[in-house]
């Protein structure tokens, strides 16, 4: 891995998706700090249209069970990925779920004075992009504090059940993120070379 004297770059390059965790609990201050970092993200029209739910203890064990149970209704590979997600949730001492609140969608038309048809697609996209920025902040803050995390997008397949479980049926599913001390070093995945993803005009 490249090494940087700049701590932000060091954290960005060091962050990896971690799917298995030590039993060691995560300190309350660290949970608070990563949530604060998520909350500092940029957001469309500064609407901060995100919400986080922190899940621990028995509730977290019940969530892991729900995911494993729901996995049985899917075929491979979704079934295996959902099962792995359930195992990550079970293994992590704390899990954070992220949702879009719909506030931008609710207020967007009057804020921006544009057509209803254009606006619903626009505002929904803006909410998703804002929450994605918040989730990335959370992942990076976790890494910087020695914690591992993984963005579990596969739970979108059972988003209704997840939102109901969280008591957030009005929200839009964004991510479920197990957080904890990594059980082992993970091998860095291959990233595409820059000339494949960047074009200079
Ligand atoms: C939107 C999104 C959804 C993801 N969903 C899952 C998932 O459901 N399960 C999982 O194990 N990893 C998931 N990941 C993590 C990716 O697999 C991971 O980021 C990718 O393999 C690159 O590895 P890295 O994060 O270590 O750089 C997701 C990542 C993103 C950004």
Give a nutshell description of this structure.
With 201 residues, this protein is an alpha+beta fold.
Gross morphology is globular
Average of the residue pLDDT scores: 95
Strand order of the largest sheet: 1-2-4-3
CATH fold label: NADH Oxidase
**Number of DSSP helical runs:** 8
* Helical content (DSSP H or I, runs of 4+): 40-55%
Estimated structural class: alpha+beta
Task: Spell the H/E element sequence.
Answer: HHEHHEHHEHEH
Describe this structure in words.
This protein has a 4-stranded antiparallel β-sheet, with helices on both faces. It is built from 8 helices and 4 strands, in the order H-H-E-H-H-E-H-H-E-H-E-H. The chain has one domain (36-182): NADH Oxidase (3-Layer(aba) Sandwich), CATH 3.40.109. The protein is 50% helix and 12% strand. The chain binds flavin mononucleotide. The site of flavin mononucleotide has 12 residues, from helix 4.
Can you tag this structure with a few keywords?
50% helix, 201 residues, binds flavin mononucleotide, single chain, alpha+beta, NADH Oxidase, four-stranded antiparallel sheet
Topology:
Layout lengths: L6 H8 L13 H12 L10 E7 H15 L6 H14 L2 E7 L2 H10 L3 H29 L3 E2 L9 H8 L5 E9 L13 H4 L4
Antiparallel strand pairs: 1-2, 2-4, 3-4
Helix pairs in contact: 1-6, 2-6, 3-4, 5-6
The structure holds flavin mononucleotide.
Flavin mononucleotide binds next to helix 4.
């Amino acid at each position: 891995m490249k090494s940087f004297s700049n701590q932000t770059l060091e954290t960005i390059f060091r962050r990896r998706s971690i799917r298995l965790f030590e039993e060691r609990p995560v300190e309350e201050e660290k949970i608070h700090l990563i949530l604060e970092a998520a909350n500092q993200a940029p957001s469309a029209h500064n609407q901060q249209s995100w919400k986080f739910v922190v899940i621990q203890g028995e509730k977290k064990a019940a969530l892991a069970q729900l995911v494993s149970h729901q996995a049985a209704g899917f075929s491979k590979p979704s079934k295996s990925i959902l099962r792995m997600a359930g195992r990550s949730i079970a293994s992590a001492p704390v899990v954070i779920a992220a949702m879009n609140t719909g506030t931008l969608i609710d207020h967007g038309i009057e804020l921006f004075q544009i057509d209803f048809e254009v606006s619903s697609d626009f505002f929904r996209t803006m909410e998703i992009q804002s929450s994605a920025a918040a989730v990335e902040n959370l992942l990076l803050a976790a890494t910087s504090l020695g914690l591992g995390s993984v963005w579990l997008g596969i739970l979108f397949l059972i988003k209704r059940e997840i939102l109901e479980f969280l008591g957030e049926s009005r929200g839009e599913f964004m991510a479920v993120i197990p957080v904890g001390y990594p059980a082992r070093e993970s091998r860095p995945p291959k990233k595409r070379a820059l000339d494949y993803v960047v074009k200079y005009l």
